[in-house]
Structure formats: C-alpha cells, structure tokens
Amino acid sequence: MQILILNGSPRKKGNTEQIVTRIAEDVTKDGDEVELFRLADLDIHPCIGCGHCEKAGICIFKDDMQVLYEKIAEADRIILASPIYFYGLTAQAKICVDRCQALWSRKYILKKSISSKPGRKGYLISVAATRGERVFEGAILTARYGLDAMDVRYSGELLFPGVDGKGTIKNEPDYPAAVHTFIQLLLES
Fold it and tell me: How far apart are CA 115 and CA 20, in angstroms?
C-alpha cells in the first residue's frame, strides 16, 4: 500500500510532525510504503483563480505542487496533517488544498480521472492548543473537500485537543492507543 502524508505544520519537530513520523515508522515496519512531505519545505505558489485548470485540468504554476499531484494520483491512502491555527488548517496545508483546484477541475469539470486506483481513502490528523467544542470543525470541513478533490473518500481523523507545547503530545495518556487505532483504520481495505 502506498501512503502519502502531507504535513502542514510549519513547526519542526512539533506535535504534528511527531505524530506523522511515528505513524510512518510503524506503517513501514509492516512493509507499506510511506512518503512524507513537509509542506513548509516546498515551493508551492498560491492559487490565483485564473481558471486555466478548468480548461486544461492542469495548473499553470510549475512548482513543487507538480510532484505532489503525481504522488496524490499514486497513493492508496492520503493523510493531511495540520495543527489548528485560528480554527482551521495552517497556511501551508491550506495552500496545498487550494492548489488541488486543478484536480477538482479535472474530476468534476473535465470528467477525467485523478487515479486508476480503486478504494482510495483520506484522513485528517490535527492537534489543537485549546479544547474548544468546535475547534476542529473548520479543518475537518476543509480536509473533506480537499481530499474529495484528490479523489479519495474521507475516512476518518485523529484529533488531539488541548496539546500546545512543542513535543507535549507524548505526555497525552491516550496518545499511543489512539495512534495504534488510527493505524488500524488506515490499513483497513
């Protein structure tokens, strides 16, 4: 199985990165392939709404998103990971989702396939500093539609509210069990 992880956290070695790194390590032990991209390290231009993708199914910008488009098409599972910034995804995660407008156009306007692989699934991993009742709602909604544009079925999330300090995810009592359960969900057919 090919798993693509898009880490939208700008913080190196932060909670989001620690979660996705642990998942990648555990999943590769079972022989699955994982590609992990730290979006903050990539050169991704913001969507300018020019409409080119509505006619051609491709984006006019030739940047690092071109590599991600290929990886998205090849993946059996896609994980979008982002801490919560003002009740939504980080700018790094959102710019990636916005650039999936080209995939959305290809899928819905031009009626072309994104991938030939059946049964593809997508997930959200997120950490929030607060425990607000609705703290993840904006991120979940954006992830659902972004993953739909990537032509994967939204299939769940791994959410940790009230985790703020760098590296404090490891102090969460339910962290190991939650990650284990998420991996089982991720690898289900």
Answer: 24
The CA angle 133-97-139, to the nearest 5 degrees, is: 0
pLDDT tens readout for residues 107-153 = 999 999 999 999 999 999 999 999 999 999 999 999 999 999 999 99
Tokens 């819905």 label which residue? 108
Q: How many CA atoms lie within 13 A of 111 on its CB side?
A: 0
Distance CA 45, CA 174 (A): 37
Backbone CA torsion sign across 6, 149, 44, 136: negative
In order of start, what are the domains of the chain with their CATH numbers?
A: 2-187 (3.40.50.360)
**For residue 93, what pLDDT is reported?**
98
